[in-house]
Amino acid sequence: MRTKALGALLLVLLILCGVPGTISADEYLRATLVDHKGVSVKVSRILARGTIEGRMGGAVHEYRFSDLSRIENLGNEIFRVTTRQGQTRTLERVSLRTPGQTNRVVYWTFDKSSGVEKRFSLGLMGFHTLNFSGEAGRLKYNPDSGTYFPPDYIFDPFTGRQLVWKSPPS
């Protein structure tokens, strides 16, 4: 009787909240953030759909983080972007953002000793260089099924198995 009640409750929750899903390994990237003093921070994940937009030659250009290897802050709202193909572009009057944010980028760092991931936000002037590794960012993983889930998941919603942190293969 108790099992049927739990099953019915789970079904109602799935209907109300939507069926949970897995996540693509290319949703997040890893990066290194370097501040103006030269101090670097390893970024465990940053949204690949983040963008930098600015003017070049009178026209507005927008680049997704997934298409870039580097963003450099040259000062006075001037930034240089380097694409994965090695092309460089200098942008003025720049806007930098991740989805759901205005003029700021949300990123996470991972402390291996505590196993805790911390969330930070970055404004235009908060860094000197942002180097994208091209490698997928850390996600939650079910070692039994080999399935990746969004980083905020604790348990596999299909099996109940506790998830672990893992960097997907590139």
Topology of helices and strands:
Elements: H1 2-17, E1 28-34, E2 40-47, E3 51-56, E4 59-64, E5 68-75, E6 78-83, E7 88-97, E8 105-111, E9 116-122, E10 129-136, E11 139-142, E12 147-149, E13 164-166
Antiparallel strand pairs: 1-2, 1-10, 2-8, 3-4, 3-7, 5-6, 5-10, 6-7, 8-9, 11-12, 11-13
Description:
The protein has 170 residues and is mainly beta. The protein has a domain of 105 residues. It is 9% helix and 49% strand. It is built from 1 helix and 13 strands. The longest helix is centred in the first third of the chain and has 16 residues. About 6% of the residues have low confidence.
Query: Compute the gyration radius: what is it?
Result: 19 Å
Helix fraction, binned, reads: under 10%
How would you state the average pLDDT, rounded? Answer: 82
- Assign the structural class, choosing from mainly alpha, mainly beta, alpha/beta, alpha+beta, or little secondary structure: mainly beta
The percent range for strand residues is over 45%
Which word captures the global form? elongated
Helix-strand pattern: HEEEEEEEEEEEEE
Question: What is the CA-CA span between the terminal residues?
Answer: 46 Å
**Number of strand elements:** 13
**Main beta-sheet annotation:** 10 strands, antiparallel
Characterize this entry briefly.
With 170 residues, the chain is mainly beta. The chain has one helix at 2-17; strands at 28-34, 40-47, 51-56, 59-64, 68-75, 78-83, 88-97, 105-111, 116-122, 129-136, 139-142, 147-149, 164-166.
